[in-house]
Amino acid sequence: MRNIVKTIILLFFALPVCGQNPKSVLPKETNVIVDAEFQRPGSAYGTRCWWWWLNGNVTQQSITRDLEEMKAKGFSGACIFDAGGANQVGNRQVPEGPMFGSPDWRALYLYAIREAKRLGLVMSMNIQSGWNLGGPDVSPEEAAKQVTFSELGIKGGTKINQKLVQPAIRDDYYKEIAVLAFPDKNKVHAPIHDLENKTASKEAGGSVPDTRPFLTDIAGMPGEEDALSKQVLNISKYFKDGVLNWDAPAGNWKVIRIGYTTTDARTSTTSGKWDGRVLDFLSEKSFNRYWDTHVEPLLRLIGPMAGTTLRYLQTDSFEGGGMNWTDGFADEFKKRRGYDLTLFLPVLTGKIIESRSVSVRFLNDFRKTIGDLVSEKHYGTFAKRSRAHGIGILPESAGPHAGPFDGLKNYSHSEVMMSEFWSPSPHRPRPIDRFFVKQAASAAKIFNKQLVGAESFTTIGKHWNDVIWADMKPSVDHEFCAGLNLVYFHTFTSSPKEMGMPGQEYFAGTHFNPNVTWWNYSTAFLSYLTRCHYLLQKGTALSDVLYYYGDHVPNLGRLKEDDPAGALPGYDYDLINEDRLLDLTVRDGKIELPHGVNYRVLVLPDHKILSLAVIRKVKALVNAGATVIGLKPESTSSLVGYPAAETELNLLADELWGKGNTSAGEKVLGKGKVIWGKTAANVLLESGLPYDVKIVAENKTDKFDYIHRYLPDGTDIYFISNQNNKQVAVSCTFRMADRMPELWDPLRGEIRDAKAYQQKEGLITVPLVFDPNGSVFVVFRKPLGSKEGKETDNYPGYKELEQLSGAWDVRFDPKWGGPALVKFDTLQSWTERPEDGIRFYSGTAVYAKNFKATKTKSKRLFLDLGEVKDVGIAKVKLNGKDLGILWSPPFRVEITAALKTGDNKLEVEVVNSWRNRLIGDDSLPADQRLTKTNIKVTPAWKILPSGLLGPVVLMESSEK
Fold first, then answer.
1. CA of 927: how far to CAs of 813, 922, 931, in Å?
2. What are the DSSP E strand ranges found in 27-121?
3. Is residue 219 within 8 Å of residue 256, measured between CB atoms?
4. In the predicted model, what is the mean pLDDT of residues 818-822?
5. Which residue of 350, 424, 539, 573 pairs with 711 in a disulfide if CB–CB is 3.0 to 4.6 A?
6. What is the widest separation between alpha-carbon atoms in the chain?
7. Are 905 and 880 in contact (CB under 8 A)?
8. What DSSP letter does each residue of 603-660 carry, written as one string?
9. Do residues 483 and 452 touch, judged by C-beta distance below 8 A?
C-alpha cells in the first residue's frame, strides 16, 4: 500500500522538465538556440541604455557620435531620456539646452530618430523631462490630489449659522467632498496606527516595504468608536459658500468639512524649466490632456518611424508621494467596491466609525480603489494611447518606491516589464535595497511577455570607479537569475565635445559612454551581456511554485531571495496577484495560466487574510486537482459584502482546512489538497520531486543562484551564478535525465560537452569550478551517450612554468600627462610612482616585455596576468597577435598558437578609470587641468591602485 501511495504522489507531481509548452511570445523558428549565434550573437540581442540628455544639452554632433558608437559596440537600442541632475549632491550645473518638447528640442529629437533609423537601432523615449509625470503646464485641476479637512465642535438644539474653517489647501485649489456630522462623544481613543500610510497620504517607502501591516491595526476597545455609520449625517446640502446653515438636533456634534486639494508633489530631476506639478495618476482626463499636448505631437512629427524605429515609450519609477483623491472618486469607489463611502469619510481624518476593524477595512478598500485607478486610468490609458501608434510601453510602474498601487496590476499594461537594479554604492548598500527584478520577471511570466528590462548598474556616490568584474558583473548576474534578460545601462550621458573629457555627467551612475576611459575595451563585457541576453530571451523560465502575494495596496514584490513561498534554493517561484489568480485553471493536477504556463503548487501569503473572491477560487482550484499551501485564513480585509462575506470565508476555510486551527496538516478536497505548516520546498521534496537544481559547495555559507529556461524543442537552459568573490568548486545536480550536459561560457563564447558528469536515479550531477563572480550556462539538448563522463572534472588544472620577472617598458599617453616611455624595474601600482604624470594618470598604458620560451606540442599554454587595477581591463598581444580583452579574474589567456620557441614580444594594454587624473587636476589651476567635468572632486576621493600588478606567469594546462 505504501508503494501505491508513493506512486500516486509521484504521478501527481509528475511534469515533463520542460513543462507543457506555453504559447510563446517568440516565433517558433527563432525560439531555438544555435551555437554560432551564441558565440557571436547579433545586435538584436544587444544591450540598451538610458541615453541621458542632461539638462537638454545635446547637439546633432553628439547625437550622431553617440548612436554610431552604440551601433559599433553592438547595442540594440537606446531610450531618449531628457533629464537634469547634473548639479545634485554638490556637483556643478551644465549649460541649459532646449526645453523638452520645445521647437528646438523637437528638431534634435527628430534628428535622433532619423539617425537611429539609419543605424537600425530600437528606440524608446521618456515622455517628459525627468520623472514623476508632469510638467510646467500641469494645472491644479490636472495635478495629483489628496484629501484635506477641518473639524468643529458645535452644540445642537438650535439653528446653526456657522462659517466652517477652510481646510488647508495648496495652489489656491480646493473642491468640496462632503460636510458630515455625528454626535460628539468627547472621548479620546488610541489613534489608528500609521494613518498617513493607510490613507495613501504619503509614499510608504523607497525599497519595496512590506505593507501587509496596513491591513490590520491594534485590537479595538469596546465603545472606542467615534460614531456608528448610521449616526453619521451628510449635511452637505446645508453648506454653501463656506457657511453651514443647519437645524442641528440637540446634543454636542462634531462637524467635519472634507475636501481635496493638490499634493505638494513636483516633477523630479528635470532639465531647465520643465519643473512643475505631478499629474493626477487617478485621472484618465488628465493623462489624455498631457498626451495630446506633449506626446502626440512628438509621434506625429516622426510619422511612420513611430512604431518602427521608436518602438517604446516610458516613464521612470513612481516617486510622487501620496495621492488619494480625484474628480469622480466617490463614484469610482462605489462602482468597484459596491457601497457608498460617504459615511466612512471621517475615517480618513482619524475617526473610528463602527469599530476599529471596520474602519481599517474601509481604508483597505479605499487604497485598493486608488490602486485600481492608478493602473487603469494612468498606465492603462498610457498603453492604449501608445498602441494607437503601434508602440508598446515600458514604464517603471511597480516600485521600488511604494506608491498607492499593485505592482503586478500596473505591469499588466506593459510590453517590456521594466524594473531596476543597483550596483553597490553608499546610497543602497544592502541587497534588499538594490535588487527589484523578480517582480518584473513574474509579470512577464503571468502576462506572457518576452522581455524583462532593468535600469541597470545605478549608483549614487560613485564616479567612474566601478570595477566591472567585482561590482557590475555579480549585480547583473544576480538579476539574470531573477529573470532579467535585457540590460538598460544607467546611464549613458550624451556629452557634446565642447564639454571636454570626461565631460558632463549625471550625478548618479554608473557612467558609461564613449568618454569613459575603457569604452574601446568594453566590447568583451558587452559581448558577455549579449550572449546572456541571447539565451535568456529564449523560451520560458521554469518555476515549480506560484506565490499569491495578496490583494492589498500598496503591494510590491521584493528581491528573489525574499522567498515568500519557501521555495529556494532548489526550486524557483513566481508571484501572482489577485486579478491574474482568478484566471487560473487546473489541468492534470497542474495549476495553469491561460497561455499554458503551469506550476506544481500554489502558495498563499502567511498573513491569514484572503479576499472572498480568492478563497472561492482556491476552493475551485483544489476541487479541480490543485495543491495549495498556506495557513488557514481568518478574515477578509474589506467591507465588500461584510459581514456576510466574513461568514462565507470562515465556512470555506473550514471546508478547505478543516475546523479548528492546527499548526500543520493536510486536507484532501475533491481531486486536490490543502497543506499547511510546510514550505513549498518541504512539500515538493516529500512528494518525491527532486530540486530543479542542487548546488553543493564545501563552504555552506557560499552564495549561488540560478535560473532555468525551457524551449519548445525540448532544450533546457540553466544559468548558474557564483555570487562569491573567490574561486569555488561545486557539485550541481540537475533534474534532468538522458541528455548530455553542455557548458556554454558567456564570458568567452566557448561551447563544449561536459567531460565529467554522472546520471543516477533520473538526475544528472555535473562538477563545476567557478572563477570569482563567475557564471556558466549548462544546456541540455543532445541525447546522453553514456551514464557517466570519462573524466573526473570539467576544468583543467594549471601549472606555473615561469614568472616573467624583471623590467618592463611602459608607454603612457603624453596627452593625458604621462611619459611617452618609462621603464618599470618591477610591476607596481602607478600610484606608487614618484612621477605625478604616472601617479595621477588616467587612461591606457602599454606594457612591453621580450622573453624567451620553449614551446611544447603536448600541452596548452597560457599567460596569467595576476592583478589588474583599477577597473580590471587588459588587452593582450603576443608577437603581434591580438589575444583579446580580459576583464574578469583570473586574467588568463591562451597563448599556445601565438607563442614561439625563442624570442617573444609581449604587449599588455591596461586601462584605469578617470578617478586619478581628476584627483590630480583638482589641485591644479583651471588652465593647467587636462580634464573637464561638472562632477566635483571631494576630499573623500582617494587615488586608486592602477596598472598591471602581476605577477605575470606562463602556465601549462593539464588539458591537451
1. 19, 11, 10
2. 48-54, 77-83
3. no
4. 98
5. 539
6. 113
7. yes
8. E--TT-B--HHHHHHHHHHHHHT-EEE-PPP-B-S--TTTTHHHHHHHHHHHHHH-SS
9. yes
Cell 548576474 sits on residue:
477
Could you tell me the CA-to-CA distances from 169 to 254, 695, 787, 862 in Å, in that order? 21, 59, 76, 73
Query: What pTM was estimated for this model as a whole?
Result: 0.95
Q: Are 426 and 458 in contact (CB under 8 A)?
A: no
* Residue located via cell numbers 569604452: 519
| Residues in a beta bridge with 934 | none
Question: With helix as H, strand as E and coil as C, how does 565-579 read?
Answer: CCCCCCCCEEEECHH
Distance of CA 220 to the CA centre of its chain: 39
Q: Which helix (H) or strand (E) holds 869?
A: strand 867-869
Cβ pair 649, 604 in contact under 8 A: no
Host H or E run for residue 113:
helix 103-119
Strand partners of residue 160: 246
Q: Comparing C-alpha atoms, which of 607, 694, 621 is closest to residue 214? A: 607
Q: How far apart are CA 49 and CA 464, in angstroms?
A: 17
Residue 380 is given by DSSP the state I
Number of neighbouring beta carbons within 10 Å of residue 823? 8
CA distances from 596 to 109, 267, 412, 503, 830 (A): 41, 41, 17, 50, 59
Side-chain-side CA neighbours of residue 16 (13 Å): 13
Q: Are strands 693-697 and 728-734 parallel, antiparallel or unpaired?
A: antiparallel
Contacts of 380 (CB under 8 A, 6+ apart): 413
Rg of the Cα atoms in the chain: 31
- Cβ-contact 682, 655 below 8 angstroms: no
Which amino acid does the sequence have at 761? E
Give the three-state DSSP class for 159: strand
858 band by pLDDT with thresholds 50, 70 and 90: confident
pLDDT at 659 over 80: yes
Number of H helices, E strands in the chain: 21, 51
Which residues lie closer than 8 Å to 842 by C-beta, 6 or more apart? Answer: 517, 816, 912, 913, 914, 915, 916, 917, 918, 931
Omega of the bond prior to 890 within 30 degrees of 0, cis? yes
Among residues 679, 601, 605, 615, which one has the least CA distance to residue 647? Answer: 615
Q: pLDDT tens for residues 515-561?
A: 999 999 999 999 999 999 999 999 999 999 999 999 999 999 999 99
What residues form DSSP beta bridges with 180? 234, 256
Q: What is the mean pLDDT of residues 259-274?
A: 97
Alpha-carbon distance of 776 to 324, in angstroms, equals 48
CA distance 197 to 204: 6
Q: What is the mean pLDDT of residues 560-583?
A: 98
Strand order in the sheet with 239-240: 158-163, 243-248, 239-240
Tens digits of per-residue pLDDT, 401-419? 999 999 999 999 999 999 9
pLDDT tens string 420-479: 999 999 999 999 999 999 999 999 999 999 999 999 999 999 999 999 999 999 999 999
100 has pLDDT over 90: yes
Say how many Å lie between the first and final Cα of the chain, rounded.
Answer: 55
Residues 6+ apart with CB under 8 A from 954: 800, 801, 802, 803, 804, 853, 861, 862, 863, 895
Residue among 383, 385, 384, 380 nearest 291 (CA): 385
Picking from 349, 274, 342, the residue whose alpha carbon sits closest to that of residue 82 is: 274
- The model's confidence at residue 29, banded by pLDDT at 50, 70 and 90, is low
Q: Give the pLDDT score at 300.
A: 98
Helix (H) or strand (E) segment spanning residue 411: helix 407-411
Task: Please calculate the CA angle 161-166-172 and round it to the nearest 5 degrees.
Answer: 140
Q: Which residues contact 834 (CB under 8 A, 6 or more apart)?
A: none
